[in-house]
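User
Please review the sequence:
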Amino acid sequence: MKHAVDDLHRIGFKLFVKDDARIQPRELVPIFHGWIQTGAIDQLVIDVADYAHLHEGPGVVLVAHEGNFALDCGGGRLGLQYCRKQPAEGPLPSRLAAACRILVKAATLLEGDPALTGRIRFRGEELELVANDRLLAPSSDEAFDAMRVALSPLVARLYPATPWAITRNPDSRERLTLTIRAARPTTLAALADRLT
């Protein structure tokens, strides 16, 4: 049976940095400007905004027409987030996979950037998914169940030989937020291969 979640387009994925990362969000300002100049991201990129002064805020944001990228400090955990803003083609499982693919590509670019000299690495075994539409995806058990069904094929693809779990932030005042955790560490390269 179709659920309103199936019409969700505003999707945000976040990859968390490893605990030993030694980077300040403002270091990404020139890197994001470089992405604009070189077309490193296959999106209509507009600008870079620095919100690093905000406590547990969005850090530094690369604004694009289709979605925004941010070295985000939300929840007190540093990570790279991609939030899709515009409608995308296909059913929800395909849209989830496409958004995740975009995030993994951007994280791979950051890990390989010579200006960061290996000071940032991402934990491939944990992802956060946020539904940025409270009307279509309220923070409810019913919406969580529908989202989990749509998300499970992607998670099974990302972690084919590893036990994994999808949990929900139980605070109904927050946006519907799901955490995906695999039992064993996974590299970005492995995730990228599984998303092709």
Q: What stands out?
A: The chain is about 30% helix and 25% strand. The CA atoms of residues 26 and 194 lie 31 Å apart. The beta strands are 11-17, 45-51, 59-64, 67-72, 79-84, 122-131, 164-168, 177-182.
